[in-house]
Design brief:
alpha+beta, eight-stranded mixed β-sheet, 5 helices
């Protein structure tokens, strides 16, 4: 059974002084829209590019995800400037099992942002939120995401086939992280 209680915001800012994870805001939308049309982003994520309707409803849908307990969509921002550099989302599959998905905007890739964001979100989920298992999935050909998972201590647990709309079968690796006892 999925979580059905609101997700409380972090008690402390989620930051390592290089990046900060925060609730999405209006100022993030231009960067999110542009990144959603990036060919590399489209290659790895299942979400369609943002159109005017999706942009218009993004913040209200994010707020509803927090209220419903379904997910905690956040912006990855540069800690010094506050500028959006990516997105990260914690989605509950069960009361204490959640998955992570993230994307770093094109101009900011290769700077270590994804591991920093995944580490911050993982610590919050496994600590404050009481998640007992955190999952991360990456396309088997997405070497960068696989490195992020491994760098953040996730362990590979399996592989699942995924069929694209055109009938192409790809494989998605599943990684898991549990609290240290």
């Amino acid at each position: 059974m999925a979580r059905n209680t609101p997700i409380p915001p972090p008690t402390q800012p989620l930051t390592d002084e290089h990046v900060v994870l925060r609730r999405r805001q209006e100022d993030d939308l231009d960067a999110m829209v542009a990144a959603s049309h990036d060919p590399e982003t489209l290659r790895w994520l299942d979400d369609p590019p943002m159109d005017d309707e999706i942009r218009r409803t993004t913040l209200s849908r994010a707020d509803e995800a927090w209220r419903s307990g379904r997910a905690a969509p956040m912006t990855i921002a540069d800690a010094a400037t506050g500028r959006a550099v990516g997105t990260i989302n914690l989605t509950f599959r069960e009361e204490q099992v959640a998955s992570l998905a993230y994307s770093v905007f094109p101009a900011y890739r290769g700077q270590g942002i994804a591991p920093r964001a995944v580490q911050l979100m993982s610590e919050w989920a496994l600590g404050e939120l009481g998640v007992t298992q955190l999952l991360l999935e990456a396309d088997a050909d997405n070497a960068a995401s696989i490195r992020v998972a491994e760098k953040c201590g996730f362990q590979a647990t399996g592989k699942t086939p995924v069929t694209d709309a055109d009938g192409t079968v790809r494989h998605r690796l599943v990684f898991s992280l549990t609290p240290l006892m």
